[in-house]
Amino acid sequence: MRLRRTGFVLGLALALASLAIGQTKPPTVQGKTTVTTREIPTVTRVEPTAPIVVESVSAPQPVGYESDIYCFGYLGDANETFPIEVHSAENIEAQVDYTAGDLLYVTGGYDRGLRVGDPYWLVTAEQEVFHPVTGKSLGRLYQYRGRATVHSVEPRTAIVRVTQACTDIPLGSGLKKFEPIPIPLARKTPLAQMGDAPSGKPSGRIVFTRDGVVAVGADTAVMIDLGVANGLQPGDFVTIYRYSLGTTFGLRPLGTYWVNVAPELGTSVPRTYVGEAAILVVGDRWAIARVTDSTHLIEVGDEVEIK
User: How far is CA 173 from CA 49, 107, 139, in A?
Assistant: First the structure.
């Protein structure tokens, strides 16, 4: 009985103590009462906005490859000569033509300014190039057969090693001091469409196709009759088109080619757009271009216009 009463008294004491603690005034700081409150986070309304559009601009890309330039050539004077030529080779008794790794003997040494390690083009004179419409000579094509580095030098002769060959290299090939030619970078623009008006910029013709191929498509190199004198520069693009006439399409023979010619004076025919080309190398009045797009076979005589 006493034990129960003692427990009741103890429980009552604890209850009263808890009530006293709950009614205790908050602590004061320098005479001010500090009240502890629970902070309620504020919610900020975000109004919807239009999506941000980031315009994608593609970086300039190479418009060709080293082989398009280093294995083509240039248009030069019809009677150009080379002071140094290949006149023999290490394996002269077993080979007629030569390729990468072969040692060639040339007709010049210290007297012609050769120095060990100097790089040179190996060049051959090829056919004369004629304009497909006027028939006028535009010069001679000098083809890059490959490259060589001077291996050893004597007073009036030297040995060169072929370091890169585009095709067979014959005896008689000339040496021309090698100068690196960079591959142009450019951004492509939309292709011309049927019915588009001329750009009003200089226009010319395709005058030669690499290796004498009669009809070409994309990813091939051609030569045109526009150059620095026409405001052309590496990285530019030209539109390729023709005026198609009747069943003959305005074709006529020229050397080994069948070429497209312009319509007769007074004849009005819409343009047929056949492709586009990027300019790789520019001479005074000629340029090498790589066909980047084609919708038809492209031939010597087709017209080009600077975009």
Answer: 70, 11, 19
Is residue 241 within 8 Å of 302, Cβ to Cβ? yes
Domain stops at, among 123, 147, 177:
177
Q: Is the pLDDT of residue 246 over 70?
A: no
Listed range (149-163, 224-238, 240-254, 280-294) with the worst mean pLDDT? 240-254
User: For residue 212, what pLDDT is reported?
Assistant: 74
Average per-residue pLDDT for the chain: 84
Shared domain for 208 and 291, answered yes or no, is yes
237: helix, strand or coil: strand
CA angle 256, 70, 117 (to 5 degrees): 135
The residue type found at 44 is: T
Here the tokens at position 219 are 């990813």
Q: Tell which residue, 74, 158, 86, has the closest CA to residue 118.
A: 158
Question: Given 145, 177, 209, which residue is the final one in a domain?
Answer: 177
* DSSP 3-state of 258: strand
How does DSSP classify residue 107? S
Domain annotation covers residue 265: yes
Residues 149 and 92 in one domain: yes
Q: What is the mean pLDDT of residues 96-121?
A: 97
CATH number of the domain within which 247 lies:
2.40.10
Same domain, 137 and 208: no
pLDDT the model gives residue 304:
97
Domain containing 247 equals: 199-306
pTM > 0.90: no
Q: Are 80 and 121 in contact (CB under 8 A)?
A: no
Q: How far apart are the first and last CA of the chain?
A: 114
Number of domains in the chain: 2
